[in-house]
Specification:
It is a single chain. The chain is α/β, with parallel strands linked by helices. The chain has two domains: 127 residues, Aspartate Aminotransferase, domain 1 (Alpha-Beta Complex), CATH 3.90.1150.10; 230 residues, Type I PLP-dependent aspartate aminotransferase-like (Major domain) (Aspartate Aminotransferase, domain 2), CATH 3.40.640.10. The strands form three sheets. A seven-stranded mixed β-sheet has the order 3-9-8-7-6-4-5, with helices on both faces. The longest helix has 16 residues. The chain is globular.
Length: 384
């Protein structure tokens, strides 16, 4: 067969890159049940511990009794519910933008924004470690794609200075999903102002985690500009589902008219919009983030001296660098045997030679949970 799918799959397996799903039979949280066994989990992006919070569950149930489950139509036909409208308005106010637009997922939001704004005559400048959805969107837009060195504003400045494109868009993760570090947004915004470019920030892993009241990476850096386009997802720190894009009045109206991933899909279930509104209220409690920072400091202190080094990160994403993909899988398997789940991240998600365990901390974790992980890793290190 010309496609040779079996041989391709065999090659993926030999390289230690085959991925397998595991079946969760509990709510998301620090302690989960997977494939019939209980585990201590450091796998999810539920950074504030809201995914199974009783207030979100009750909010969704109450909304379902009034609005039903499915939206029944796309936003522009008749699926735009008053709960969607309230969510957009609340997010715009939280992030200090004139207006916001609700998408069904972060992936769809990135595709919608970038393909609506750019064409083959424009240029897009992307950090080399951007999320796959940003890269896919850049390719689909047909714009001239130029990638700058990770978190390197000087290299971005150089590339923008050489570009003759009339419209230039810089795209970056706010917090990088596999490294946990932050984009140098203050410097990047200054570069964009010099070269008349817009800056699109995907803050999927920063909203709820960074800034006063969890309002995200722009608030963390104190940034406000009409050159900014801001995206936050609701399925991570918010414990819900969906994504929101904020920007100028004209930008959001243009996306409403032109973003295919907004126009041509069924609207998000209204009950999830209500759950997200409830999450916005809960995330205002800065004690959640203070606890997270205590856990991060504890983890980094407890893992000192191990043969695997934590990468530099002050966010709940704490990558433990292993290097070899097969070795990373073996380490994750050994932890799982001891009752602890931590995912092994391998190429192509991360560059070759940089396979890692992606330790994700949550405000629902305790100091004892972190200590248990550190003790398990120390035991495995002694047995090497």
């Amino acid at each position: 067969m010309a496609w040779e799918l079996e041989s391709r799959l065999a090659q993926i397996s030999r390289a230690g890159l085959q991925r397998r799903r595991r079946t969760l039979s509990s709510a998301q949280g620090p302690r989960i049940r997977v494939d019939g066994r209980e585990y201590l989990s450091f796998c999810s992006n539920d950074y504030l511990g809201l995914a199974a919070h009783p207030a979100l569950t009750e909010a969704a149930c109450q909304a379902a009794r009034v609005a039903g489950v499915g939206a029944g139509a796309s936003h522009l036909v008749l699926g735009h519910h008053e709960l969607h409208e309230q969510l957009e308005q609340r997010f715009a106010a939280l992030t200090n933008f004139p207006r916001a637009l609700l998408f069904s997922t972060g992936y769809m939001a990135n595709l919608g924004v970038i393909t609506a704004l750019l064409s083959r005559h424009d240029a897009i400048f992307a950090d080399r470690l951007n999320h796959a959805s940003l890269n896919d969107a850049a390719l689909l837009s047909r714009a001239d794609l130029q990638r700058f060195r990770h978190a390197d504003a000087a290299h971005l400045d150089e590339l923008l200075g050489r570009s003759s494109a009339q419209r230039k868009l810089v795209v970056t993760d706010g917090v990088f999903s596999m490294d946990g570090d932050m984009a140098p947004l203050t410097d990047m915004l200054a570069v964009c102002e010099r070269h008349d470019a817009l800056l699109f920030v995907d803050d999927a892993h920063g909203f709820g985690v960074l800034g006063e009241g969890g309002r995200g990476i722009l608030q963390h850096f104190g940034l406000k500009s009409d050159r900014l386009i801001y995206l936050a997802t609701l399925g991570k720190a918010m414990g819900s589902f969906g994504a929101l894009v904020a920007g100028s009045e004209s930008l959001i109206e243009y996306l409403l008219q032109k973003a295919h991933t907004y126009i041509y899909t069924t609207a998000l279930p209204p009950m999830l919009a209500q759950a997200s509104l409830t999450a916005f209220e809960l995330m205002a409690d800065d004690r959640l983030r203070q606890h997270l920072q205590q856990l991060i400091r504890q983890l980094r202190n407890d893992l000192e001296g191990l043969p695997w080094q934590l990468m530099s990160s002050v966010t709940p994403i704490q990558p433990l660098l292993v290097g070899d993909a097969v070795a990373a899988v073996e380490l994750a398997d050994a932890l799982r045997e001891s009752g602890i789940m931590v995912p092994a991240i391998r190429p192509p998600t991360v560059p070759t030679g940089s396979a890692r365990l992606r330790i994700s901390l949550s405000a629902a974790h305790t100091a004892d949970d972190v200590a248990a992980l550190a003790q398990a890793l120390a035991h495995l290190a002694r047995g090497r």
